[in-house]
Design brief:
Layout lengths: L12 H15 L4 H5 L6 H8 L7 H11 L4 H13 L10 H7 L2 E6 L10 H11 L5 H14 L10 E7 H5 L5 H17 L3 E5 L13 E5 L6 E5 L4 E4 L2 H17 L3 H22 L1
Parallel strand pairs: 1-2, 2-3
Antiparallel strand pairs: 1-4, 4-5, 5-6
Helix pairs in contact: 1-5, 4-5, 7-8, 10-12
Pfam families: DUF5753 (PF19054), HTH_31 (PF13560)
Protein name: Transcriptional regulator with XRE-family HTH domain
């Protein structure tokens, strides 16, 4: 058996945090199995935190502090680690990138903007220019890098099963240039088809449907209860109360029924991409 490799605490704040967790656990004479016992999380989850690969959720931090007798250290510092892991994201969004990585299934309803996981770099910059015109170039660059880092999820073998629903008006009515929109729609098609994901479009002929008033991201996990992420212009929240999560689940399923089938949805996106590409060529 190869020698056990210690995490390099100098690499990053999450690695420092994970190395300290492992040190405290071993000082207490506990295995990973013994430390995670009694929590809502799995063994591999804790192991990845020790390696600096995942963030520490507050519920697990409290559990660890209690079992190790660390006087709240890991709970106090888990928010700092989340900030370090998610430079370029607003503080209220700090936990979401890690949750996306951990998810078994990821279902999104995006009525007003393309989901960050599906955006091209040009689209990101355009949306930030229109949505946050006073943001500094440095802030824009941080945001773009952070969003591109999230999209690396598509290259993982253990990526979540993805199901996205978009509103047709998002495709038809846009301030973005035709070339940017063509590239964006072609990118979405490539991601959906290459990852065996699902995309549906709610047509403009269905103006009334569930979840009319905002986006929703439903995430399920192998070793934790499902969550819903909702977001507005300047804030967002994680919904974990079971009755509310179930309400979102039912509404999302009804929204699927109101949307076009998969093949018709992809055909609509393909046609729009061709039209934007033709418009871009005519403008050259």
């Amino acid at each position: 058996m190869p020698p056990k490799k210690d995490p390099d605490a100098s690499v990053s704040v999450p690695c420092f945090y994970g190395a300290e967790l492992r040190y405290r656990r071993e000082q207490a004479g506990l295995t990973l199995e013994q430390l995670v016992e009694g929590s809502y999380r799995g063994l591999s989850f804790l192991s990845q935190i020790e390696r600096g690969e995942r963030g520490m959720p507050v519920d697990l931090a409290r559990h660890v502090d209690q079992k190790l007798g660390t006087d709240g250290f890991f709970e106090r510092r888990c928010e700092d680690v989340a900030k370090a892991r998610n430079v370029g994201h607003p503080l209220y969004y700090a936990d979401v990138p890690d949750l996306e990585k951990q998810a078994v299934t990821l279902e999104e309803w995006a009525p007003n903007a393309f989901p960050g996981l599906l955006q091209t770099e040009a689209c990101m910059r355009g949306l930030m220019r229109y949505g946050a015109p006073l943001a500094s170039p440095e802030t824009v660059e941080k945001n773009v890098r952070a969003r591109l880092a999230r999209a690396k999820l598509w290259g993982r073998e253990d990526r979540p099963t993805y199901w996205g629903i978009l509103r047709e008006s998002l495709i038809r009515n846009t301030p973005l240039p035709p070339a940017v929109m063509a590239e964006q729609l072609e990118h979405i098609l490539n991601v959906i088809q290459s990852t065996q994901s699902v995309l549906q479009i709610v047509p403009e002929t269905s103006p009334w449907h569930p979840l009319m008033h905002g986006m929703a991201k439903i995430m399920t996990f192998a070793d934790a209860p499902p969550l819903v992420w909702t977001e507005g212009d300047f804030d967002g929240q994680i919904v974990d109360f079971p009755a509310l999560v179930q309400g979102y689940r039912r509404s999302y399923d009804l929204l699927r029924a109101a949307a076009l089938p998969l093949e018709a949805s992809l055909a609509l996106v393909e046609e729009a991409a061709r039209n934007y590409r033709d418009e871009a060529r005519q403008g050259d």
